[in-house]
Amino acid sequence: MGGAHGRRRAEPVTRAARRAALAVIVPFGLVTLVAMLWLWPQDTPSVEGVSAQQVEGTIDSIQREQCAEELSDDVNGCGTAQVRLTAGADDGETVEVALPNGTGAPEVAEGDHVVLISSSTPDGQVHSIVDHQRAAGLWLLAVAFVLALVAFGRWRGVTALAGLGLTFLVLVAFVVPAILDGRPPLLVAVVGSAAIMLSVLYLTHGLAMSTTVAVLGTLVSLALTGVLSAVAVAGLHLTGVTDDLSAAVGTTQQVNTQGLLLAGIVIGSLGVLDDVTVTQAVTVTEVAHANPRYGALQLYRAASRVGRSHIASVVNTIILAYAGSSLPLLILIVASSDPLGGVLTDQVIAQELVRSAVATLGLVAAVPVTTGLAALAAARERSTGSA
User: 69 lies in which domain range?
Assistant: First the structure.
């Protein structure tokens, strides 16, 4: 959460800035805390009755053989692999596993570290290779990410990492368990987003006046995004069930999939909203320092020009992000012979269009709201300081 806004001189934390920050943190923080306690999950359901379990292993050898018939989804060909289990009670045991084939099957070779599914059958335990182990590679990537962020951002990089950890904690410890416990997904998403925003923005950017303005602008825009998404989803009769995964979540966990769609829109919008609001608040502050004679209206006009350019690029970013995550779906659409009008009104596509449109409307609203608040705050702080 929170984009890189470039290096700038540290904004002085004046007494007025501290008072303004406390005036926002205390009431909104208390409301958010009470709402979190009210929505806090009492019991998180778990999936029961699953006989298969995951185990890890290393492929010692592969014995290939001629296939009896041609495979339409051949990945590794026919044959077996000798896999030495490397974790759990069966550590060191060697099992014989059929080579995996089919769409999405991992391509394996001798020496690969793999993940297997162990299933109980009347004939005993049966193992199947389902994936590669990626822990070592992910840890290496995480270390590179941390080192790069701290090396470039220094103390700001450290606070950004702390904010990222806090965001992850709120999502995993509150948002997801509360939704699984049957709480209203949209309300949970709004409360969780407010908790993330109030803590992470001040942790990352300090108690400066621009941070307080960004918090207020984000709160207003986030509330507007929630209302618009609820109206759009209800008006277009979207159910939130567009694939096997969403259907499984609704069926096995009894989660309101329409509410889950709304929650996803709100949480997804938050990361872009805070980038826009912080940028606008900082822009007003910098323009006020560079042009001490500017009044609130002039500050608003100057920063709005920056905001319009920022929105134009961010909107394209949103569309590309959704297109990237939905690329297989786009391929199927282009490959189909259905008319464009019918494709766009299909629920799968309509849901993505609603995500993009609602997120964009929230961003568009964030610019004038945040810029106006920042301009008024800068003008008032200047007049108070000169008095």
Answer: 53-132
Cα–Cα distance for residue pair 116/211, rounded to 1 Å = 48
258 in a structural domain: yes
Question: What's the pTM value of the predicted model, to 2 decimals?
Answer: 0.76
For residue 117, give every residue at least 6 positions away whose Cβ sits within 8 Å of its Cβ, in sequence order, or none: 52, 53, 54, 55, 127, 128, 130
Q: 117 and 260, same structural domain?
A: no
Bridge partners, residue 131, by sequence: 115
Write the CA distances from 123 to 71, 120, 127, integer angstroms. 26, 8, 12
CB distance 178 to 40 below 8 Å: yes
CB distance 203 to 166 below 8 Å: yes
- Label residue 334 exposed, middle or buried (CB < 10 Å: 0-12, 13-18, 19+): exposed
Q: Around 332, how many Cα atoms within 13 Å sit in the side-chain half-sphere? A: 8
Terminal alpha carbon distance of the chain:
38
Closest CA to 359 of 307, 329, 305, 321: 321
* Cα dihedral 100, 101, 103, 109 in deg (nearest 10): 60
**CA 162/CA 153 separation, integer angstroms:** 13
- Give CA–CA dist 226/70, Å, rounded: 52
Residues 171, 221, single domain; the answer is yes
Helix (H) or strand (E) holding 317, with range, is helix 296-325
Alpha helix positions (H), 154-256: 155-170, 176-180, 185-205, 209-235, 244-252
- DSSP H helical ranges for 40-184: 135-153, 155-170, 176-180
Predicted confidence pLDDT, tens digits, the chain (387 residues)? 544 444 445 565 667 677 777 777 888 889 999 999 999 988 755 545 444 688 888 888 889 888 878 777 778 888 888 988 887 666 778 888 888 888 788 888 888 898 888 887 777 778 888 888 988 889 999 999 999 989 988 888 888 898 889 999 999 999 988 888 888 888 999 999 999 988 888 888 877 888 888 898 998 998 899 899 999 888 888 888 777 777 777 777 778 888 888 888 888 888 788 888 988 988 998 888 888 888 888 889 888 888 888 888 877 777 777 777 677 766 766 676 666 666 667 777 788 888 888 888 888 899 999 999 888 888 877 666 544
CATH number of the domain that residue 76 is part of: 2.40.50
Q: Give the three-class secondary structure for 154.
A: coil
